[in-house]
Write a structure and sequence with these properties.
Layout lengths: L15 H12 L14 H10 L5 H12 L13 H10 L6 E7 L5 E6 L5 E8 L4 E4 L3 E2 L17 E2 L2 H15 L13 E4 L9 H12 L11 E5 L3 H11 L2 E5 L5 H7 L8 H9 L10 E7 L7 H10 L5 E7 L13 H13 L30 H9 L1
Parallel strand pairs: 4-7, 7-8, 8-9, 9-10, 10-11
Antiparallel strand pairs: 1-2, 2-3, 3-4, 5-6
The protein binds iron/sulfur cluster.
C-alpha cells in the first residue's frame, strides 16, 4: 500500500550482496525451537494448551497476559502458580520482532525497523495526532505489485508476513508506547491502518487472523471501527474482507481513467476502475457512518487537473466516501513531482463542492523517511541454492 518501507536515512544502505550475506548469516544462527504463543487465535491457543494438559480456563488467563498486559516472560504471569510458569517457559516462547532501529521524527512520528526470525525486515510507523494515534503496519516483505509512484514497488516480494509477525508489529508499538489497555483510558495508540509494505488482500488469511487477535475485547481490544485495510484493488477479496472482518476499507485509487491508472497502479489492468468501484458499492456494512476512503496521490501533470477532480466525483457518485489527497513524497529514483499547493487546493475544492470530505494529508515523518510512499526495506529474496544451504546447516 502507499505507506511503504524504507532504509533509515542515517544508516548506510546495504548493497544487494551485503544484504543477502547478512540475511544468510542471520538465517544460519541457532533458532529457538519452542512453539510461539504469539499470533495464535484463541481456539489455536486453547488447542496447544490442551496439548500439554491445561484446562480450558487457562486459555483466558494466558490470553489476558499476552494481549491485555503485553507479557513477554512467563515469570511475570503472577496469576499462575510458579511451577506452571516454569513449565510454560520450558515449552513455549512469546515472540517479538527484534527492533533494529527506532527513529523519532521532530513531529512525533516514530518508525521502527523490525527484524523477523528469518532475518527479513519490515517497518512499522506510528503517527500521533491530536485526537488519535495511528499505527501503520505491513502485511508482506516487498510487494508483487509495481505501483509506479511507490518505493516498495521497486522491491520484489520476498514473502508474506505471518499472523505472529503482523501482530508482533502492533505489540512492539504497544510495548514502546505503553499503550496496553491496562494503561488507562487515554491510550496513545487508537487506530491501525494496513497501509505498510505489501498488498494485504494477497495475504488475507494471515492479515485476518492477526486482526481478529487485535480486535479481541479481552486483549488489545481495538475495535473494527478503528482498523482500516488499504487495498490497491484486489476485487475478488473485498467482499470477504468486509464480511469476515468488518473493518474500514481504503482504496488506492490515484487516477480517474484506466489509461492513467494502468500505469500508476498496474493491478488496474486486471480489475479496472469500473469493476473496482462496483465492488466498493457492494462492500458489506457501507453507509454514511462507515465510508470508504479513496487515497489519491497528487502527481504534477499526471492526475491533478480539474477535469480529473470532476471525473473522480462522477465515478464515485453514490458511494459513501471521503477522498484523502496525498501530496507525493519523493524517493530516490522516483519519476514524479508533487503537484503544487494551489493545484492541490483547486482539486480539493472541486471534490468538496460535490459533497465529499477531501482532506489534504499533511506529510508526517518526512525527516526520517517515514512519510507515505517513501518506505522500503533492504530484505532480499534468497536464491533457492542459498535457502537450501541455510536449511542444511
Ligand atoms: S507497490 Fe502498490 S500495492 Fe505494493 S506496497 Fe506499493 S502502493 Fe501498495
Amino acid at each position: 500500500m502507499l505507506r511503504t518501507m524504507s532504509t533509515a536515512p542515517d544508516t548506510v544502505p546495504a548493497s544487494a550482496p551485503e544484504a543477502r550475506a547478512e540475511l544468510l548469516a542471520f538465517a544460519g544462527r541457532p533458532v529457538d525451537a519452542r512453539p510461539d504463543l504469539l499470533g495464535l487465535e484463541r481456539d489455536a491457543l486453547a488447542a496447544v494448551l490442551d496439548g500439554i494438559g491445561l484446562p480450558a480456563f487457562r486459555t483466558g488467563q494466558i490470553w489476558h497476559w499476552l494481549y491485555h498486559r503485553g507479557a513477554t516472560d512467563f515469570q511475570t504471569m503472577t496469576t499462575l502458580a510458579k511451577p506452571l510458569r516454569a513449565r510454560l517457559a520450558e515449552t513455549f516462547r512469546i515472540s517479538r520482532p527484534s527492533v533494529v532501529t527506532r527513529q523519532d521524527s521532530i513531529d512525533g512520528t516514530i518508525k521502527w525497523l523490525l527484524r523477523f526470525a528469518d532475518g527479513n525486515e519490515a517497518e512499522a510507523v506510528f503517527i500521533p495526532e491530536e485526537d488519535r494515534g495511528t499505527l501503520c503496519v505491513s502485511s508482506q516483505v516487498g510487494c508483487t505489485l509495481t505501483c509506479s509512484f511507490c518505493h516498495t514497488g521497486t522491491q520484489r516480494l520476498v514473502r508474506n508476513l505471518t499472523s505472529a509477525e503482523i501482530v508482533g508489529q502492533v505489540m512492539v508499538a504497544l510495548d514502546h508506547l505503553g499503550a496496553y489497555p491496562t494503561g488507562g483510558p487515554n491510550r496513545p495508540l487508537t487506530n491501525i491502518v494496513l497501509m505498510g509494505m505489501g498488498e494485504p488482500l494477497y495475504n488475507f488469511d494471515n492479515v485476518a487472523s492477526a486482526m481478529r487477535i487485535i480486535m479481541d475485547g479481552e486483549g488489545v481490544a481495538l475495535s473494527k471501527r478503528r482498523i482500516t485495510l488499504s487495498t490497491s484493488g484486489v476485487v475478488p477479496m473485498m467482499a470477504q474482507c468486509g464480511a469476515d472482518l468488518g473493518v474500514n476499507l481504503a482504496i488506492s485509487l490515484h487516477a480517474t481513467t484506466d489509461t492513467v491508472r494502468d500505469d500508476l497502479v498496474p493491478i488496474n489492468r486486471k480489475w479496472p476502475i469500473a469493476e473496482l468501484l462496483d465492488a466498493c458499492r457492494r462492500y458489506p456494512g457501507l453507509n454514511n457512518a462507515r465510508r470508504i476512503t479513496f487515497e489519491y496521490v497528487m502527481l504534477a501533470g499526471v492526475n491533478d487537473a480539474p477535469a480529473d477532480a470532476r471525473r473522480l466525483v462522477a465515478l464515485i457518485e453514490g458511494i459513501p466516501a471521503k477522498i484523502n489527497l496525498i501530496p507525493f513524497n519523493p524517493w530516490p529514483g522516483s519519476k514524479y513531482v508533487c503537484s503544487d499547493p494551489d493545484t492541490i487546493e483547486r482539486f480539493a475544492q472541486i471534490v468538496l463542492a460535490a459533497g465529499y470530505a477531501s482532506p489534504v494529508r499533511t506529510p508526517r515523518g518526512r525527516d526520517i523517511l517515514a512519510a507515505c510512499g517513501q518506505l522500503k526495506s533492504e530484505s532480499a529474496k534468497l536464491t533457492r541454492r542459498e535457502a537450501r544451504s541455510v536449511a542444511a546447516e
